[in-house]
Amino acid sequence: MTLSDASFSLRAGDKVGLVGRNGAGKTSLLRVLGGENPAAGGRVLTSGAVGYLPQDPRPKGAGVDATGLSHVLSGRGLDAQARKLEKLHAKVEESPTEKNVSRFADAEEEFRLAGGYAAESEVRRIGSGLGLRDDRLDLPLTTLSGGERRRIELARILFAGSDLLMLDEPTNHLDVDAKEWLAGFLRSHRGALLVVSHDLELLDTSITRVLHLDEGSIIEYRGTYSQYKVARVEDEARRTKVAKRQESEVRRIATLADSMRGQSGKRARVAKSLDTRVERLRKEQTTGPQKTKKILVKLPPPPRSGVVTIEAEGLAKSYGGPPIFTDVTFSAGRGERLLVMGLNGAGKTSLIRVLAGESEADAGTFSLGHGVSLGYYAQEHEGITAGKAVIDHLREGNEVSDQLLRGLLGTFGLSGDIAFQDASTLSGGEKTKLALAQLSTGRHNLLLLDEPTNNLDPPSREAIGDAFAQWPGTIVLVSHDEEFVRALRPDRVLLMPEGTLDHWSDDLLDLVALA
Questions:
Q1: 42 CB burial (10 A radius; 0-12, 13-18, 19+)
Q2: Domain shared by 245 and 148, yes or no
Q3: Interatomic CA distance for residues 318 and 144, integer angstroms
Q4: Are 318 and 362 a contacting pair, CB within 8 Å?
């Protein structure tokens, strides 16, 4: 659906949530507003500094060195200023001429006025709020997990002090403490905020206006997200009544016109006049709200595997520094659900990547059981290729008709012409659905799932949770989503980085969002 003739404004202090179903165009709109994509029409006017967090940021390091700390400091150019100051200081020590001393003094004053001396502690405070330990900030970006790189980029945007923040799903990969910290930061932000999020608590505590995007138009609501939901229900009821009343009037006039045709010349002229009126009414007619499409995801039954599907012995992993985890040993049996839990940075994603063959362990081994076919869902959507059509992602290794593949996409809520769209242009929620659809075509009986519900709207999360709950294969899962974990009903839990195995208990549900 193409957004047309949409106008809205944000001023300092405005806190606005952009909401709508997956695929409604929220991410596309933010890409245009953030200057990532051009608009097909209209204008975007901004003043002051803009901080834009895309849904899938891939920071490569904008700082003077490759560390996360330098990348965040570069948000205000303070890393470059510090490096310049170091060089000027070295020149003064080497040759303390009046010129060199004066240049150093001017640079030092500029650095001090810009808050340079307090900057590193401020960055570490923001990083700590977002769940980044000090030692992670000091590491090269390339050694950090996808979730950590995303938090580094968010920290850079918050540190930069932009006049306008545009954030697309900023709570992805954040635990509950980090979400609470971010909500407090956004509430106290003096500039304008436009946020896309399926985190209902964040929307309820941080915003005062809602822009509802659907069917190519934007409708504005005042108040919190909870107040928006009430107003939206009332608005849809009103639109339904108006649409029915208008449709009834159109049918009445059209019937009257039909009854006059073929009669006297005078009546025929009246019928023609009534036809014109019907045409005008149809153009002005209000359309009732479309019903939310029910998503029913069904995963194919897995081929039978051996009793043990995967075994790991003494796994360890590091990225050039201290090990993230050591001596992780476990096994998973046929049909078992194993939840991997741990605080941010505990090595959950690193472990999953080792098991998926995407990364090598520094020590230890693992093996798959008899007849095991492994499927991997990566939180970074690494299996989605830019420039490649959505349906082509399902064609690989599948000698089935396009009709069947389009039907499969439809069950994941990816219907219509979206099948032939460049997969890289999909929203984050649509990419999640495509990646899960890819898994379902693989005839796997062991799935490694790393945050499979990120970016999904509530109906999609519920449908996909039900599908995995009913699927009889083996699942090794990393997730912060309490409801998804509840639906999946894990058998055991692997606590990272210690690698401790324990039986699952519903008492652990309160820790899921924390881990």
A1: exposed
A2: no
A3: 11
A4: yes
Report the chain's mean pLDDT, rounded to a whole number: 85
Task: Provide the number of structural domains found in the chain.
Answer: 3
Say what the alpha-carbon torsion angle 92, 94, 97, 99 is, to the nearest 10 degrees.
-50
Residue type, 215: E
Residues 367 and 249 in one domain: no
* Phi and psi based region of residue 425 (left: phi greater than 0; alpha: psi -120 to 50; beta: remaining): alpha
**pTM score, whole prediction:** 0.69
119, part of any domain = yes
pLDDT for 397 equals 64
- If asked whether residues 149 and 271 sit together in one domain, one would say no
Tell how many helices (H) and how many strands (E) occur in the chain: 18, 15
Q: Report how far residue 399's alpha carbon sits from residue 397's, in angstroms, rounded to the nearest whole number.
A: 7
Range with lowest mean pLDDT among 125-139, 185-199, 217-231, 463-477: 217-231
Q: Which residue has the tokens 């697309």?
A: 168
Q: pLDDT value at position 294?
A: 63
Helix (H) or strand (E) holding 19: strand 15-19
254 shares its domain with 349: no
Asked whether the beta carbons of 409 and 454 are under 8 A apart, the reply is: no
pLDDT over 70 at 90, yes or no: yes
Partners of 365 in the β-ladder: 313
Report the C-alpha gap between 52 and 154 in whole angstroms: 9
Q: SS3 letters for 357-379?
A: CCCCCCEEEEEECCCCCEEEECC
Containing structural domain, residue 501? 308-512
